[in-house]
Amino acid sequence: MAESLADGETRREFLFLAAGAVGAVGAACFAWPLVDQMNPTADVLALSSIEIDISSIPEGQGVTVKWRGQPVFIRHRTAKEIEEARAVSVATLRDPQTDQQRVVKPEWLIVSGSCTHLGCVPIGNQVGSDRGDFGGWFCPCHGSHYDTAGRVRKGPAPKNLFVPPYVFLSDTKIKIG
Amino acid sequence: MEKKTYKNAVVRWIDDRLPIFSFMDHEYNQFPMPKNLNYWWNFGALATVVLIAMIATGVVLAMHYTPHTSMAFDSVEHIMRDVNYGWLIRYIHSNGASMFFIVVYIHIFRGLYYGSYKAPRELLWMLGVVILLLMMATAFMGYVLPWGQMSFWGAKVITNLFSAFPLIGESVVQWLWGGFTVANPTLNRFFSLHYLLPFLIVGVVVLHVAALHVTGSNNPDGIDTKGPQDSVPFNPYFTAKDSVGLGVFLIVWAAFVFYAPDYLGHADNYIEANPLSTPPHIVPEWYFLPFYAILRSITFDVWFIEAKLMGVILMFASILVLFLLPWLDTSKVRSCRYRPIYRWFFWILLIDCFVLGWVGANKPEGMFPLIGLIGTAYYFFHFLILLPILGKIETPLPLPTSISEAVTRRSGAPAGATAATGGND
Questions:
Q1: Using CA atoms, how far apart are residues B329 and B314, in angstroms rounded to an integer?
Q2: What Rg value do the Cα atoms of chain A yield, rounded?
Q3: Active site annotation includes A142
Q4: Who's near B101: CB < 8 A, 6+ residues apart?
């Protein structure tokens, strides 16, 4: 039985390698469920859309809603704020995006309320709070400033505030997610 | 290992089958220790005591704590108000984390001053760095469990660091969280791991001590023991000396527990976690402040690497560089006693770490970002540039010919007069 397969390779060495390979694949197949169980569960994924009535938000003000456990800012922008957001030269921005790319209806700005630096909640959504140097939001943790389109203008944040997927169900109702 | 013959028949019966008594006698009774050790050599034993106390108090706290976002905060208050001695056990545990880091940081700087990381103790040192990493992970996850504002936002900011990695960052963070933000799945797994990691620490500590018992302890003169005249047996000499240090240390720990139990904590952590409101100033616990300063030190992109990613890389590198220390330090002389130039740089490094801690405690405004950047640069300069060069250009002072000679010269007694012959085998 100990016939040689090639020079210096015996049946025993072949069986040793083959058994080792099967064992390694088996161990990897067992490890994957142990790793993957840490990913978001089905019920967490299922909670991923909400509907909001926006008719009660006056111009110039905003509300904070909770979507997937995180804050989302809904801002009813004034004509002046829209004007400011559109007057900026896009090429000068850290994360270049036009205002039109970030909104569906110009008067409604809907962005994630997590700073893109390290995830703090920027302030400025309530009337009277510090909106930073550019009239949008200001993150108190590490000093990032966002403009009236939720774009980063100053500070350590690398990206603009994330725009979540949303649709207008009617003029006064939106669905996020 | 030499086996002893015991008079007691039961002990002899066990020892013949499992030589646990011979082992303890050899490693903790007769074990030869350099006779010139000073009190800085207490801190390994102190760290062991803290580890045991942390596991004991942690296991009983877990009997009353509920790792669920809707109940975690209240269950901690339940421990503080309703559980018999709950306040005591929790304060021992929460202050114990700080005590553990104080002791381990002193232990590390002791190693840096006396060159304990040099051949043949490189692996001993590297196992110690592994213990430090495990301790940091354990402490971080433990701080999340009370589910206060600092717990939540500390967890959020630190886990968000992993989003700095290109391409995979976002999925790694969601995998760590088990969702789209720090939430119940995160708290649950942190509790599980916070319970697991201390036992891994125990495992690495066993390896650390095993490696120590192969090479033997370093000593303040940094020279090898050359025979029985240089050493004394562990018991009673160092059981006694460690006990004195332990007494002092327990007084300090008890002083915090009974008189200033929240001094090292943060008041905001007595406010329940609120995912919609960030506290105005997030700071980690004091023992992470220097690393937090390094994390925030880079405010500009370096080539193609974003500032945020660069900070993360440097923070991890600040610990990983310690793994390379035995090879970065090119000097053959271990102890600072005989290294006239390095001695100064040791103290400058220590001051640098305090400066970084001070920067980490403050908002990154005004002069702090610049000081943080300089402090970070100096930290890496010390390990990566200064140590390799210094070993080549420094002229060390003459080393004593033996520990025995060094001891008797310092005490003024004639050589050989106090040479103890311990029970070395």
A1: 20
A2: 26
A3: yes
A4: B135, B139, B287
Tally Cβ neighbours within 10 Å of residue A156.
24
> What is the token pair recorded at B138?
């354990």
Q: What is the mean pLDDT of chain B?
A: 92
Please indicate whether, in this complex, the C-beta atoms of A70 and B181 are within 8 angstroms of each other: yes
Three-state DSSP at B118 gives coil
ipTM: 0.78
Give the SS3 label for residue A72: strand
The pTM (predicted TM-score) of the whole model is 0.89
Chain B neighbors of A48, CB-CB under 8 A: 180
When pLDDT is averaged across residues B410-420 and rounded to a whole number, the result is 53
CA distance A63 to chain B (A): 12
Q: B276–A69: do the CB atoms touch at under 8 Å?
A: no
Q: Which two tokens stand for residue B230?
A: 């240089």
CB B231 within 8 A of CB B422: yes
How close is the nearest chain A Cα to the Cα of B308, in Å?
7
Which member of B176, B277, B364 has the closest CB to residue A143? B364
Task: Read off the tokens for B402.
Answer: 């033996």
**Does B180 contact A142 at a Cβ distance shorter than 8 Å?**
no
In this predicted structure, what is the pLDDT of residue A5? 55
CB-based contact B6:B12 (threshold 8 Å): yes
d(CA A156, CA A118): 9
Tens-place pLDDT, residues B154-204: 999 889 888 888 889 889 999 999 998 899 999 999 999 999 999 999 999
Residue B422 in 3-state DSSP?
A: coil
Cα B45 from Cα B239, distance rounded (Å): 9
Ordered strands of the A166-170 beta sheet: A50-53, A173-176, A166-170
Residues 150-169, chain A, touching B (beta carbon < 8 A): 156, 158
Distance of alpha carbon B4 from alpha carbon B234, whole angstroms: 17
* Contact predicate B109/B213, CB 8 Å: no
Neighbours of B107 (CB within 10 A): 21
- Whether A47 contacts chain B with CB within 8 A: no
On the CB side of B191, CA atoms within 13 Å amount to 20
